[in-house]
């Protein structure tokens, strides 16, 4: 598994909304903006499932996921990996605490980072 560099983790903490991409079994892409995304550790990202529909179906279908983040100094990063959807356990409990009360807290999406790109260049 790839390790998130400090520059990527720092960029994630500065960004408010993230374009997150998945695809279905027929390779039809889906991109959605997600506000609740944070780094858990060097190899894991947590995403809250509030209103996901196609994204949820795609994760359950094949698990492939990617998101982009932009840093003013370092440029853009693309993070790719595999996701699992959890409706119980520690990560689900974390979503319950983290997400605003007025929003749905359907599931935790745990992304395991596999590849990281800075622009077109693979860095991990």
What does the model show?
The protein is α+β, with helices and mostly antiparallel strands and 124 residues long. The protein is 21% helix and 46% strand. The chain is built from three helices and eight strands, in the order H-E-E-E-E-H-E-E-H-E-E. The protein has helices at 6-14, 54-61, 90-98; strands at residues 18-23, 29-34, 37-41, 44-49, 64-71, 75-86, 107-118, 121-122. Strands 1, 2, 3, 4, 5, 6, 7 and 8 form an eight-stranded antiparallel sheet that branches. Strand 5 and strand 6 form a beta hairpin. The longest helix has 9 residues, at 6-14. The model has no long low-confidence stretch (mean pLDDT 94).
SSE arrangement:
Elements: H1 6-14, E1 18-23, E2 29-34, E3 37-41, E4 44-49, H2 54-61, E5 64-71, E6 75-86, H3 90-98, E7 107-118, E8 121-122
Antiparallel strand pairs: 1-2, 1-5, 3-4, 4-7, 5-6, 6-7, 7-8
